[in-house]
Amino acid sequence: MEEVTRILARYVVESRFESIPATTRHHATRTFVNWLGCAIGGSHHEGMDIALAALAPMAGAAQASVLGRSERLDILHAALLNGISSHMFDFDDTHLKTVIHPAGPVCSAILALAEHRPVSGEDFVHALVLGVEVECRIGNSVYPNHYDTGWHITGTAGVMGAAAACGKLLGLNEQQMVWALGIAATQSSGLREMFGTMCKPFHPGNAAKNGLMSALLAEKNFTSSNRGIEAPRGFAHVLSTKFDPSEIIDGLGSTFEIDLNTYKPFACGIVIHPIIDACVQLRNEHKLTGDEIESVLAKVHPLVLELTGKKTPQTGLEGKFSVYHSAAAGFIYGAAGEREYSDAVVRDTKVVALRDKVTAVVDSTMHEDQTLVEVRLKDGRTLSKYVEAAIGSLKRPQTDADLEAKFRGLAEDVLPKAQVDKVLGLAWKVGALASAGDVAAAARK
Amino acid sequence: MEEVTRILARYVVESRFESIPATTRHHATRTFVNWLGCAIGGSHHEGMDIALAALAPMAGAAQASVLGRSERLDILHAALLNGISSHMFDFDDTHLKTVIHPAGPVCSAILALAEHRPVSGEDFVHALVLGVEVECRIGNSVYPNHYDTGWHITGTAGVMGAAAACGKLLGLNEQQMVWALGIAATQSSGLREMFGTMCKPFHPGNAAKNGLMSALLAEKNFTSSNRGIEAPRGFAHVLSTKFDPSEIIDGLGSTFEIDLNTYKPFACGIVIHPIIDACVQLRNEHKLTGDEIESVLAKVHPLVLELTGKKTPQTGLEGKFSVYHSAAAGFIYGAAGEREYSDAVVRDTKVVALRDKVTAVVDSTMHEDQTLVEVRLKDGRTLSKYVEAAIGSLKRPQTDADLEAKFRGLAEDVLPKAQVDKVLGLAWKVGALASAGDVAAAARK
After folding, report:
1. DSSP 8-state secondary structure symbol assigned to residue A376
2. Shortest Cα distance from B162 to chain A (angstroms)?
3. Mean of the per-residue pLDDT values for chain B?
4. Of B3, B14, B13, whose CA–CA distance to B229 is shortest?
5. Distance from CA of B196 to the nearest CA of A (A)
6. Inter-chain contact A220–B54, Cβ cutoff 8 Å?
7. Which single residue of A198, A410, B132, B359 could bond A47 by disulfide (Cβ 3.0 to 4.6 Å)?
8. pLDDT, tens digit (0-9, with 9 covering 90-100), for B131-149
9. A233: which chain B residues are within 8 Å (Cβ-Cβ)?
10. Taking CB atoms and an 8 Å limit, are A150 and B234 in contact across chains?
């Protein structure tokens, strides 16, 4: 059996910033910007208030910021809280091969660490690339069996990605990096049973905190197995019925998983994205306001109705499971961000009226990325839009401007516009900063 | 499927101290005394120094004591550190049905909590009984498949035991207790691959800390699944190929798993215990000193040579895997505590000389608890001792006096004798104290 734990550790320790292609560095910056907006946007969710009320009395010195809030906590708790808020709306990034949300564990851990032990923007971006590489390669090696078993792979693989990224920033040597990965592997956890509860966003937060702790322990030579990932009683064999070490080894250092990261344009499950995309395009191309619509017919993949068939949602959360509400929001607002999934918008009479005019029918010739939306207007015209792959997918990635608009949509609910401008400016140039932690300090309320 | 998470939660919430039999309360006190001695004894191990150096800079207010040391940390870190030290020598308690070490996760969590939010001794003992009940019943429901898969069951089940015990002390209602168990279930972790490294004692410490955190989050209404244990994607099905809910439900409230707890008299794997027991008995019955021994022949179960066949151990740790050293220590010292597994004793020429006279042969008619030890003396006499079940097993439990001697052997290496007397006195009467946390404060260096 290949000693993949050591191979990964050696790669992370020996990797030099210069070996990271410029395009990959830019992908890392996009990942960071998207994550930061989500973390600021989710920072005042009820789950954040609860977690802070419960844990702040045990927190240590004010070493790092809780983004979008006034609290400063020790770096372990800051990593936990920022990880929770970044996944609160299920609006963060997705590595589609594994459905890992890569940034939550890695960015939450390294930004907290960078605020306390300053590092350059280059080192920060480098650690981000490496952390995502480690978590996604480990994810690839056990996916899909591991996920199918019931593991929330963002938590289980994320803790090792966070450990690797923090270990890089701490300057661990190879043996210490092996231990950091092992200490992380033995904390690998997170059950899919928790989806729909506050424990879902808890998983990336906990992975960030525990990955950071693993690196801190390894830095002082706390020992673990040298084969935490690949041993018969290690991570891969205990938590999965499939383990393909070639997914970890092949192309290591020459291909980068962060290049495959995607960013949701809409704050709901990916299955409705093609329909919303079609509605927004129809709206914008024909300057529709919603009032002129007589009826809407969407031909969709079977999973759409299975997962999001809720006809009369009553809350913002229920709206995320309603293709009808989502289509109506697309027509009326040209968007389906967190705001369009607020309780108020879901109950808005204008939205409800249009929602009731939407029909969705299963078309088994459609694959998951496809849809055909037909709109009948009151003036008798019929418009239609076919989507082959939704905006935000790998085939039609969000532009930097899209990401910026998404960031503003999330952050401006929390911080003053001038501050949002400043944070966004810093985030785009994080790789050039003298101290990457300055971004966190700037994003404090 | 029975809703065992709710059944357990309701039982813990509704249980009254008066419903715990006096014998069970005494078992809880014995469990506490044994755990406390182990935690004090292990408190200056290198792994503890490392963990403190790494994590103390992130710790919060001085809420709870690190036993046997001068540091005071927030309750989460204190629970972690005391859990690590209590398992450092592998000398703590064993629930033989599951090989769970029950006290590490539960006692470490509730003692830290009790020091910060004072509770009566009765409430403390009650929570200890309930926490052990929860972790061992959950363990029974998935054992042995769960353990065979590679999970360190002390960590995986322990986190839920710690959550239940802390939740009881915090006065959670039924729904909150369900959440506490769920938040704990989704943190369930710990790989057997880590055995032989510092991560092994890390597991009960981490379970204590995370179980306590789960209860604190649930107290503020942080939500989880209501079926964290039994759901198709919950703890039992994801982490085990066997799940028998009757092990959780049957007899709940009328039988107590803590009654089945055992305490090691010797600081090594249980497989050598019958041999050491025989050697100690021969020594004491015949007033042997070791010098008069010509040769020793032990007839043993095959596992003894498989696991502990090291002929020439060079370090204390290696000594634990040597039936030869262990037998020699039994003859010379009449004991095999942590002291007899120090580097110095393992290298002592007198011990080495006797060790080299020990032969162990497999006798396949022996079961694991049995041994026959024959000693040939220089004066020509032959002595023998047959052991049917070793001291410390359920058939021959350690007496309270044995536990007290063990406690002193561990604690007197760390604290002055007068302080050991005081701590031991408090520990035996923990159930009668006005504030159980006083024991922790008294055990500080």
Report:
1. E
2. 16
3. 97
4. B3
5. 8
6. yes
7. A198
8. 999 999 999 999 999 999 9
9. 150, 191-193
10. yes
The amino acid occupying position B102 is P
Q: Which of A194, A219, A224 sits opposite B54 (nearest CB)?
A: A219
Q: Which tens digit of pLDDT belongs to each residue from A126-137?
A: 999 999 999 999
| Residue labelled with tokens 């408190």 | B43
Residue B434 pLDDT greater than 80, yes or no: yes
Count of CB contacts below 8 A, A vs B? Answer: 184
**Where are the alpha helices (H) located in A263-315, listed in sequence order?**
273-286, 302-308
Burial class (CB in 10 A: 0-12, 13-18, 19+), B138: buried
- Chain B positions touching A207 (Cβ under 8 A) are none
Percentage above 70 pLDDT, chain B: 100
The Cβ of residue A128 has, within 10 Å, a number of other Cβ atoms equal to 32
**Reported ipTM:** 0.95
Domain with CATH 3.30.1330.120 in chain B: 270-387
Are the beta carbons of A193 and B228 separated by less than 8 Å? yes
Name the minimum distance, in Å, from the CA of B374 to any CA of chain A. Answer: 39
CA atoms of A264 and A282, how far apart (whole Å): 20
Q: Who wins on pLDDT, B317 or B325?
A: B325
When CB atoms are compared, the residue of B149, B185, B232 closest to A238 is B149
CATH 1.10.4100.10 placement within chain A: 4-264+398-442
Query: Mean of the pLDDT values across residues B187-191?
Result: 98
B149 contacts A228? CB cut-off 8 A: no
Q: What is d(CA A91, CA A392) in angstroms, rounded to the nearest whole number?
A: 12
CA-based nearest distance A239→chain B, Å: 8
Retrieve residue A27's tokens. 């992908």
CB atoms A59 and B60 under 8 Å: yes
Question: B184 vs chain A: nearest CA distance in angstroms?
Answer: 10
- B231-242 per-position pLDDT tens digit: 999 999 999 999
B393's tokens: 């097993």
Alpha-carbon span B246 to B56, nearest angstrom: 43
Q: HSE (CB half, 13 Å, CA atoms) of A376? A: 9
Using the beta-carbon criterion (under 8 Å), do A225 and B193 form an inter-chain contact? yes
Q: Which chain B residues are Cβ-neighbours of A227 within 8 angstroms?
A: 193
Output the CA–CA distances (angstroms, integers) from residue B180 to A91, B157, B225, B229, B271, in the order listed.
Answer: 26, 13, 10, 11, 36
Residues of A with CB below 8 A from B217's CB?
50-51, 54-55
**CATH, domain A270-387, list 3.40.1010.20, 2.40.50.100, 3.30.1330.120, 3.40.120.10:** 3.30.1330.120
Quick check: B151 and A191 CB within 8 A?
no
- Answer whether residue B185 shows pLDDT above 70: yes
Q: Which fold has domain A4-264+398-442?
A: 2-methylcitrate dehydratase PrpD (1.10.4100)
How far off is chain B from A378, nearest CA to CA, in Å? 46
Of A285, A323, A286, A325, the closest CA to residue A307 belongs to A323
**Cβ-based burial of A74 (10 A; exposed 0-12, middle 13-18, buried ≥19):** buried
pLDDT on residue B380: 96
Return d(Cα A98, Cα A365) in angstroms, integer.
25
Q: What is the pLDDT of residues A204-263, one digit of tens each?
A: 999 999 999 999 999 999 999 999 999 999 999 999 999 999 999 999 999 999 999 999
Interchain proximity B185–A191, CB inside 8 Å = yes
